[in-house]
Every structure is written in C-alpha cells, then in structure tokens.
Amino acid sequence: MAQTAPMTSTKEWISVHEASALIGVSAATLRRWSDAGDIRTFTTPGGHRRFSRSAILGLLPATRRQRPNLGRLGETPEHMIRVYRRHLADTCFGVPWLGALEDAELTPFREQGRLISKLLIDVIDAATPEAHVMAIEQATEVAAEFGRMAACCQVGARQTVEAFLIFRLPFLRELASVARRRGLDTGEATELLDTATEAIDLLISALMAGHESAQAEPASVAVTAE
Predict the structure, then answer these.
(1) CATH number for the 77-225 domain, one of 1.10.10, 1.10.490, 4.10.320, 1.10.760?
(2) Which residues pair with 43 in a beta bridge?
(3) pLDDT tens per residue, range 36-49
C-alpha cells in the first residue's frame, strides 16, 4: 500500500522502471503488487511511485522461481521464429507500403522483424537483471534501425508505427497460445504478456527515435553545405 514519503535516503527509493530492470519483472506487475500492499512504496509530490530497493531485491529469489520462462516451457526461440515467419508474409499485405515493396527491398524489413522477435524472447527468458537490460538495449537498437530504414523509404512516422504494431500481433498471439498450451495460470500468463508488451512499448519509442534521426540527417547536411 502506498505511504507518505519516508525520511530516509533517496538512494534507497527507485522508480518503477528501475525496479523492473533490477529484477526483470514487468512494471505492471510491480504496480499491482504495490496496489495490493504486497511491497513497500510511496508516492512523490509529483505523483510518481517509488519502490524500496531492498524490498525489491528481497523479492528476487521468489520472483525467479515464479516467472514464466519459454525455454523451461519447452518453447524454443527457433519454434517461435518459425511461427512468426509463417504469419509475417500475410502481415505484410496488411501494410500498403510494405506490400508495394519489391522482394529485395522487403527482405531487410523481414530480417529486422525476425531479429526483434528473437530479442524479445531473450528479454522474456533473461536469467539475470543484467541480461534483461542487455536484451532490451539490443532490441531497441534494432527497432531504431527499422525506423531509420522506413524513413529512408519515404514512409511517414504514423505509417511506420502502424506497421510495427501489426508486426507485434503474431508474436503476442503466439505467447498467448503458449500460455494456453502449457497450462499457465492467470498470473503467470499475465506476467508473460506484460513483460513482452512493455518491451514492445520501449521498442516503439526507439522506432520513432530512429525515424526522427533519419529525417533530421538531410537537414543537418544542408546546413553544413551552406
């Protein structure tokens, strides 16, 4: 249950995203635990929730035993990629600008999509907080490159995000299918999907940053030339 701010060192108190990265549990799950009074938090005057670092670290052993892991569930990255690849060709036809590309132009986008899918699996199955953060960083780099590539093809920001959102559906649907096949309970299935969804949200931000950086490059060149 949220409390008034305690008179302790601010180094002990971390944001929900810092807590999420620290133990590899989704921010949505941490908020639920906070609302239920299962973990010590307080709310800043600005309305931001802060978590006790020591309390978060105290959850780590139990969390690691409970958190769903695709590898332990028998779902290999190769299987997930094969499923994703089967859906990818049909997905492209739902995105006009991708459907209009020649095969040679479309191939790099397909490769980026497959790589993002693999890295999302790495995020879900990360064995340590460090591995979780590293997988997120790698995935955001790939998403940013997707945004740069789209901008170089003269695709607008809105169309780029729409395409990315369509690409995520096969991945999330397969995760939901895994949860059903493996008999995960509601909490485990929610944790699995929350982790993937929050990672994808970070990728969308990186996608937009990459798109914006590619659009800014010609302007920078023009100013230099003058």
Answers:
(1) 1.10.490
(2) 49
(3) 887 878 888 888 88
